[in-house]
Write a structure and sequence with these properties.
The protein is α/β, with parallel strands linked by helices. The protein has two domains: 142 residues, Rossmann fold (3-Layer(aba) Sandwich), CATH 3.40.50.2300; 122 residues, KaiA/RbsU domain (Methyltransferase, Methionine Synthase (B12-binding Domains), Chain A, domain 1), CATH 1.10.1240.30. Helix content is 52%, strand content 8%. The chain has twelve helices and five strands. It has a five-stranded parallel beta sheet with strand order 2-1-3-4-5, covered by helices on one side. Helix 8 packs antiparallel against helix 9. The chain is elongated.
Amino acid sequence: MGGSPIALLPQLSIGIFVHSEELAESAIELLRGERYALTHMKSAVDILGFLQHNYHVDCLVFEVDGDLRELLSKLQARSLFLPAVIFSLQPGEEGKPEAQPSDNFEAAPSTAENIIQQSCTFFYHPAEVQLAINRSTEIAASIDRAIAQFLKLSTPVPVNDQSAMVDATAQLTAQSLLQRQQRRLAEKLRERLGYLGVYYKRNSQIFLLNLPGPEKQKFLEQLKSSYRQIVLNYFSENTAVNNQIDEFVNLAFFADVPVTQVVEIHMGLMDEFAKQLKLEGRSEEILLDYRLTLIDAIAHLCEMYRRSIPKEASQVRLTVDS
């Protein structure tokens, strides 16, 4: 008689890119076990290729060397942001991990915003954890801290008033991709640990209302193009449509796009399609089905706003209302 099936908790996927064989072997030995799935990469080409085809890496482990800056610049240019632990000879104070390893990702010692205030010196992004090589035995605790800080990161790179206006669309795209990675990781942690403490902050400097005319027009064109792809694929068997909806909603959310603007984009596209159908002598009734597309997009956007409210704030509101 067979025993009851064992529920396997999802492993944390760790990508290790460390040139020092001794350091790499030490890290692999320390992390070996059921909790982690380890991938050791030995070249920048390997890691770029791996990340382009594998979206489920939970944390990267690097070593400070001559190639690190160039590699991380390529990851930044591609808006590929992940939790990271970076071995360094002399890391900054903000890189010190917790004294005791813990699975309690909610108990982060400080938010990413505090890290930025303490020091703007980082290699990859403000939520990275720098770990002294002579403290490499603390790698597991450092991974915990890197993930906790990454989930609280509101923007991949701190922006100032000038950079916010250079290319707001690129910033919104990077922030959108960051949020998707945070949500994927939070969902894995929820399965593994019951973690529920992730919510998202936005930068008002790149809200649609605050963008200058040219930037606003450029962003709206991108948003319209994104929505057009959703409409074209919505009733097809293209499984990418769910990701397209996520991308559209993330862009709209971080730019604080009002629902009325989403409706306006939808109606504008329906008008374009109606004119095309009329030229082809076809009925416009088919366009009524695409009301489902609009409802789906707005529902996802509402869910984003619900997620953006801190758990503590919602509890306070419930207490006041009762």
